[in-house]
Amino acid sequence: MINDSNRDKTLGETLREQGISRRSFLKFCATTASMMALSPAMIPKIAHALENARRPSVIWLSFQECTGCTESLTRAHTTTIESLIFDFISLDYHHTLQAASGHAAEQARETAMEENYGKYLLIVDGSIPMDNPGYSTIAGISNYDMLMDTAKGAAAIVAVGTCAAYGGIPHAKPNPTGAVSVGDLIKDKPIINVPGCPPIPVVITGTLMQFLTFGSLPELDHIGRPKAFYGKSIHDRCYRRPFYDKGLFAETFDDEGAKKGWCLYKLGCKGPTTYNACATTKWNDGTSFPIEAGHPCLGCSEPDFWDGGSFYKALSMPTENITRTVIYTAAGAAAAGVALGAMNRHKKNQAVATHNRTSIDDLKK
Ligand code: SF4
Ligand code: SF4
After folding, report:
1. Do residues 323 and 243 lie in contact, with contact meaning Cβ atoms separated by under 8 Å?
2. How far apart are CA 309 and CA 317, in angstroms?
3. What is the pLDDT of residue 213?
4. Which of 99, 134, 188, 266 would you call most buried, defined as having the most Cβ atoms within 10 angstroms of its Cβ?
5. Ligand 2 contacts CB of residue 168 (under 6 A)
6. Do domains 4-230 and 235-364 have the same CATH topology?
7. 200 and 281 in contact (C-beta within 8 Å)?
8. pLDDT at res. 337
9. Which ligand is nearest to the CA of 278?
């Protein structure tokens, strides 16, 4: 986890040693600028700032969680620049990843807090149990005490995953542990919520990048999420949207509509009420996302998603635009054009190509 030889190096030096070419690095900066909705003019500034940035201390606390958020970040199959940037921070405490254990581990947390007081970034995953005293402790310290103690000297806190951001699954009814979110307890520090069950790795690293690059926090929405990643709904950016607009829905998981890639709204898709970057950033190094794999969005980046009723029951929304009589608007046509373009880019294998041809024909009818 912690590579002491890198402690005093800049990111530029670290990347060069890792064999990352200037071209790849600039490409990464361009992608990052576009993801953060920054103008291309910012690319040289991002590159310059990142190249000269030094490792900030990061303390990562895990409370009531499933380790999915850490797995999301660390299970990349290939070394990516994102993971190098994650290596580049000084991850001084993370009880799942660190080699140290027992007193040495706790000493590492205390030392990092002391040496970087007021400057370190605190990342939290998991919710905090407020009932059942004695439940969920680390080194004999309750989750609540550890959070409050570590938060005191943090410059900012990143609540990673829906559990830390909004309570998540532990908070779901009947909430036997009295689980609460980081924001329920900490009121005097900037908190960035990066929800998702788990969050998309590049969204976690993108948020860290903002801190690394500009030393500032990203612009947040009304529930504390970076607008750059959570500013639009899954539905707004879904490649199946033209089917929704035309009133073409899969009714079961194995009907003709499902096979043709029609909209999954009637199968319970929560895309219209869910704000996340899955439809554009995708998962597994940009390979796919749940809707592309034929499964409705569950709404995992929203508060109380687990208590929102059946995952497979359609949202109750106005249905006037969910019929075959819907007027195929200019906006819908434009979206269809985008979808057709996107589909054409996906001719990697014959099965997908066949599927897309069928779907395109449906849209043209
Ligand atoms: S599959 Fe879901 S997100 Fe995509 S268009 Fe249909 S309802 Fe919207
Ligand atoms: S598609 Fe929906 S449920 Fe799936 S990961 Fe994205 S936000 Fe979460």
Report:
1. no
2. 14
3. 79
4. 266
5. no
6. no
7. yes
8. 36
9. 2
Closest CA to 211 of 121, 276, 94: 121
Q: Which CATH class is domain 4-230?
A: alpha beta
Mean pLDDT in consecutive groups of 10 residues from the start of the chain, 365 residues: 58 81 85 78 87 85 92 69 69 82 88 94 96 87 96 96 97 96 97 96 83 83 95 97 97 97 97 96 89 97 93 77 38 36 36 45 62
Atom of ligand 2 nearest to the CA of 276: 7
The CATH architecture annotation of domain 235-364 reads Irregular (4.10)
Which atom of ligand 2 has the smallest separation from the CA of 300? Answer: 8
In the chain, domain spans = 4-230, 235-364
Look at residues 158, 203, 166, 197 and name the one whose alpha carbon lies nearest to residue 58. 158
271 lines ligand 1 (CB under 6 A): yes
Q: What is the pLDDT of residue 52?
A: 85
Ligand 2 in contact with 162 (CB < 6 A)? no
Q: Tokens 């608007």: give the residue.
A: 329
Task: Check pocket membership of 85 for ligand 1, CB cut-off 6 A.
Answer: no
Three-class SS of residue 235?
helix
Ligand 2 within 6 A of 234 CB?
Answer: yes
